[in-house]
Design goal:
The protein has 81 residues and is an all-alpha fold. 80% of the residues lie in helices and 0% in strands. It has one domain.
């Protein structure tokens, strides 16, 4: 891959993005080149918000979700009959 030179402001932005993602700037650079800063920043922000939500609220197993879905479907089926 040819050498890439970033403006100082873009380098700071890349380093900040990499820190937010828990990755190195070198690891993040291909994604930024492919998708752009704005997309990568939105994606990392959304992922971090999701991880924070899991930390605060925990998770629900797929078995629990499936059981609740079956119960809702069953309840509505009885009401429709």
């Amino acid at each position: 891959m040819p050498a890439i030179t970033l403006k100082p402001a873009d380098l700071r932005r890349l380093e900040k993005l990499a820190a937010s993602a828990g990755r190195s700037a070198e690891t993040m650079l291909p994604f930024v080149l492919r998708d752009g800063f704005e997309y990568c920043e939105r994606t990392v922000k959304a992922a971090n918000q999701g991880l924070d939500d899991i930390t605060v609220h925990g998770t629900v197993s797929s078995d629990t979700v499936a059981a609740k879905a079956r119960a809702v479907i069953s309840r509505h089926a009885r009401q429709a009959a």
